[in-house]
Write a structure and sequence with these properties.
Layout (H helix, E strand, L loop, with lengths): L8 H8 L5 E3 L7 H13 L4 E5 L2 H11 L3 E4 L8
Helix pairs in contact: 2-3
């Protein structure tokens, strides 16, 4: 099975059809209020994926506020663990 085949069906189809909508809250946006507003809007707007800065608290906040799968971004790889 390919990595693409391991994705949830809706994400896989969005990628295959080139119609996936990923909302980016900002690589350097660590403001919880701003990230929460963006996450809520992304969820209400039926985005497919939300991208947030690499911070465990923001990831939890974003998932709760949006109900969407979360991508995590960072320039510094040391932030990921």
């Amino acid at each position: 099975m390919t990595l693409l085949g391991q994705l949830p069906e809706n994400l896989r189809q969005g990628l295959e059809k080139k119609s996936l909508l990923k909302i980016i809250s900002g690589l350097s946006n660590f403001d919880p209020n701003s990230v929460e507003q963006i996450a809520r809007a992304a969820g209400r707007g039926k985005a497919d994926v939300l991208d947030v800065a690499c911070d465990p608290a923001l990831v939890r906040l974003s998932q709760k506020a949006s109900g969407l799968p979360i991508c995590v971004s960072a320039v510094d790889p040391d932030l990921f663990p």
